[in-house]
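Researcher: Before we compare anything, I want clean individual predictions. No alignment, no superposition, just each chain on its own. First chain goes here; please echo the sequence and then give the C-alpha cells.
Model: Echoing the first chain and its structure:
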Amino acid sequence: MANNLQLDIPSLVQQFRQDGYLLLRNMLSEAHVQELNGAIDRIVGEEPEALAYNIYNSVERDSSILSLIDHPQLLPLMVNLLGYNIQLHISHLTVRKPNPDGVQTKTNSFIDWHQDGPNPQFPKIGGLTAAYYIKICYILSDMSEPNRGNTKIIPGSHLLPDFKPVQTDVNVPLEGELQICGKPGDVFIFPQNLWHAGSPNRSPGFERRQLFIGYSPIWMRPIDYHAASPALLEGADPIRRQLLGDISTNCFKYYVPEPDMVPLKRFWRGETSDSVYRT
C-alpha cells in the first residue's frame, strides 16, 4: 500500500531535532489514499451533519486507518525519533468543510495557537518541554495551497525557552509562522511541544482531510482508549500488539519491558542499556 521510498533516517532525525517538524512527500500511494477517503466518506456519513468533524480512536472505525499505525517506512523513523518502547497514543481524524464566512461551530472548525499536552501541562526544565509524544499527519485532500484549513506551525519554537506567541488567535498572522501545504499522500510529523494551530478553511470547493496518528512511550496513558479492544488486537502481529499496548499482564513491565516485549527495538539505531530491575 505504501511506496518503496527509503528514508534517510539519521538525516531526518537531525532535521526533526532542529526544525521541530518534517514534511515528507508521497508516503501513501494513490490507491491507499483512495481507500482511506472511502473509509472517511463512510465514517463522516455516520456522524451528524457538521462543518467540522473531530473523530478520535478512528483506528476502531476502519481497518485502512488501523493499517497506518505500522506504516513500513514511517514506523522505523518514529522509533528513532521517540524510542522503541512506544505505543499508539492517538488516532484523530479531522475533516473541515469550507467555511469562508467563519461560522462558529461546536466541533472546532479551527484551533488557536497551542502546544499539545495535558492540563496542567508537562513539566518544563530550563523553560523547555521535552517531546513526550509525536504525531504523523497524513494529508488526504488537496492542501497544496494555504487557507484550506492547513495546520500552522512555528518552526523551531520547541527550542525557545518559555516561548509563547505574542497572541494566540490563529486568524492573525504571526511572524515566522508556516502553513503546512501538501498533496494527498504527503505527511508531516511534529512533536507535542511545537507551537501549532489549526487554521480555518476559507477556500470554497476544498475540504480539509487530515488524519493524525500519534505515538507516545508505552508507560504513558493513551488518549484513544483505556485498553485496546479485542477487535483491534485480533490477528495483530507482535509489532502491532506492542503499538496497541498489549505487551504483558505485569504492569511493571510497561516501565522496564523485557526485550521480547518490545519488538520495535529491531528498528532502533541508538544506544541501548539493560535495566537494573529483575522481576
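Researcher: Okay. Second chain, same rules.
Model: Second chain and its structure:
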Amino acid sequence: MFCFPKDPSVSHDFTTDTSDPTPFRGDNHGTECAGVVAMSKNTLCGIGVAFDSKIGGIKINIEESMDVFEARALGYQQSSVDVYSNSWGPKDNGYTVEGPGRLVSKTLQSGAEKGRDGKGNVFVWAAGNGGDKFDSCAADGYVNSIYTIAVGSADQDGRQAYYDEDCSAKMAVTFSHNSRPTGPQVYTTTLDGRCTSGFTGTSASAPLLSGVIALALQANPDLTWRDVQYLIVYTSNIDILTVDDLATNGAGLKFSHHFGFGAIDAEALVTRARHWTSVPQQLNFTIPATQFECMISNGSTCELEFQFTSELGANISSLEHVLVSLSLSIVPTANDSLWNLTDYYEAEKDGEAGDWLQSPHPRRGDVEIELTSPAGTRSILLPNRDYDFVNTEGYDNWPFMSVHFWGEDPTGTWTLRTTFRASSGSVFITNVTLTGFGIAEGVSGNSNRGLCQNCLRGCGDVCDVCSELRLNYSLACVSTCPNATIEYNGYCIAGSVIYPETPTGNSADGTTTVILVSVAAVVVVTLFVVVLVVLVVVLVTRKRRKDRFSTTTTATNVYWSLPDIDDNDDETVQI
C-alpha cells in the first residue's frame, strides 16, 4: 500500500458536493500524474519530485465540464494552493480550436494576481499530444494564456517526442517519452497499488515541472508567479537537446518552437530560486490595428505593421509575453465544399513532400501566422495544421501568445505576416491588436553572489551547474568535499546520507531505482536523471476532454504540500 498524507481542506468532489474526490476504479490518469510528484520517501515504488506531500483533489463531471465548473475547480482554495498542474485540455485531433471561457480566464487572472497571498498561483499546463496529427498548441487557448506555463515533451536522447506539439507559447520541455522499443517510459503508480513504467505524454511533463516548481517555492516562498516563469526562461537548457529550429532572440536567449527555452534543469532552477530577487511590477501596452481588414487568397500573404514608441506610455524596455489577438474566417468559393467539426475528411498525402493533407477546398489549417519583432526575431504564432480541414469556423478574437521575445526591447516596428496556402477560397482577417507585457528594466538572471567558483554553467554571478561538487547546505561549488561531509551524487552532504534502495512491492518490471535528493530537500538531479529514476504515487481522478495518453474520463485536480526547509509555511500544489 502506498503512503501519502491527504489534505481534505483542499479537496472537493463537485459532482457529489463532498470533500472526497476518490476516482472511479480503473481511472488511473490522475494517479499517474500525481505519482510523478508526490510519492512518499519509502521503498515501495520510488520517490516523488516533491516527496512527503499532502494530497488533495478536485473532481468535476466530464459531461458537465463547462466554463463555470472549470472556473470553480481552478479557483478552489486559491489562497492555500501554490501550483496547479493541469494534464488536460482540448482534444488533440489536429482540427479542434478551443480555449477557456470568460469565467476560467478571469479565474486564471485572479489566481495569478491574488492567489497565494498576492504572490500568485502558478498554473502549469501540458502542451498537448497531437503532434503526430500535425496539431499545434497555438489552437489551445489554455496554453496561450500569459498566466499558464506550457510544457512539452522530449525523449531520452533529447529529441522532440513524436506526439509533442509546437507553438510559440511553450516555455520548456521535460523528459516524458522513451523512443527505444525496449525502454521504459515514466515510472509512476496506479490505483491498484502497482508500479507502471508506461506513463508518457505531456501529461507526465506537467507534474514533473510542477514538482520542480514546488521545490523552488519551498526554497524561496517569496517567488511570484512571474518569478517562476523568469526562472524557467533563464535556467532551462536547450544545448542538451537536438534542435533543428534553434534561434536566438534580441536579448540573447536561445529558443525553439519545439522546445521553448529548453529542457527543465531542476538543479539550476532551484539553486537560482534560493537567491532570486522578485522582478519589478508588470507593465503592458496595446497597439490596435485601427480599421484594418485584410483578404488573402491563392497562396498570398498579408502584412501588417505595428509601431511601438514611447508615446504609448508603457515605458517597457524588457518584454515578457507578446500577444496578438485577431479574428479570422475562411471564405470558400461557390464551388467549394463546406466542412465543419462533425465531418470526416479523407484525403491523400501531398505527393513528394508527404507531410500535409492535400485538399481541393480551402480550410483553416492552410493558414500560417508569424510575428517579427523590431530585433528581427521571428515567431510562428500559428503553423499550418495539416489535419484541420474545417472551413466553416475560423478564429474569433483568438489570443496567439509568444514567449520568444522575452527580454527584448519592444521599441520599433513589429510585422505580422499571414499566409494562406490553399489554391481556392480566401481568408478574411480583422480585429487585430498587439499587446506586450514586460518591465521597465531588464532582468539578466538575477544573482547568487559567491557561488560561482568551480562553476560549469551559469549566468553572471549565478552558478546553475557546478563543474565538480556542490555543498548541499550553501549550494556553493567546490572541488573537494570539506571535513564532516560525505560525497554523494555530486554533492557534499553534512551528516549521514541515504543511499539508493531496491524497491519492494509490485513493480511493473521488477527493476526500479530510487535516487535521493539532499537532506536539505533541495533537488540535486537534473531533468533527464529526475524522471528516469523517480517513482511516485497518489490517489486522484482526472479532468476532462484531452486524451493525453489515457483512456479514463473523469475529473482530476490534485493538491499537495511540502515539508519546510527554511522554517516557512508548507507549500501546496494542485494537479
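Researcher: What stands out in the second chain?
Model: Residues 8-279+502-574 form a domain with the Rossmann fold fold (CATH 3.40.50.200). Additionally, Residues 341-356, 497-575 have pLDDT under 50 and may be disordered.
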